[in-house]
């Protein structure tokens, strides 16, 4: 297997998350082909909250309160890490994920997707994200359940 030639090289990301029988927290792992040699744990065992991958710029910008390029540009201008942290440290949205009801989590996921779809729809170039949205939940007591089920058809054109 060859390694990626750069950070911006295209790859296939695989994200696997789910509940383990003896834990209240989900296990979350990711693997990026052709870069990673083994799956990597996404977060510590008892941490929780949302994750988004792929076209993350629009929602990350909204959620953090600044574009991710801002700290990079400030650093290039000579700002120290402490100065940058002081400027952008508390701009992000505050959410209590620990007590979030499942309906709120579903609505939050749809919100992330709609922001991303809207951003790419009106950006220059080919729209890289679109609908219809397909959404399911996986709960320890209910298992897999479609919220917004895809309508799959065979097209014989």
Can you describe this structure?
With 157 residues, the protein is an alpha+beta fold. Helices cover 29% and strands 18% of the residues. It has 4 helices and 5 strands. It starts with 11 loop residues before the first strand and ends in a 9-residue tail after the last strand.
Short précis:
The protein has four helices and five strands. The protein is of the alpha+beta class.
Walk me through the topology:
Layout: E1 12-19, E2 26-33, E3 40-41, H1 57-64, H2 69-76, H3 81-88, H4 102-122, E4 135-139, E5 143-148
Antiparallel strand pairs: 1-2, 2-3, 4-5
Residue runs with pLDDT of under 50 for 5 or more positions? 1-6
Sheet with the most strands?
Answer: 3 strands, antiparallel
* Count of distinct strands: 5
In DSSP terms (H or I, runs of 4 or more residues), the helix count works out at 4
Strand content: 15-25%
Terminal-residue CA separation: 38 Å
Radius of gyration in whole Å, from Cα? 19 Å
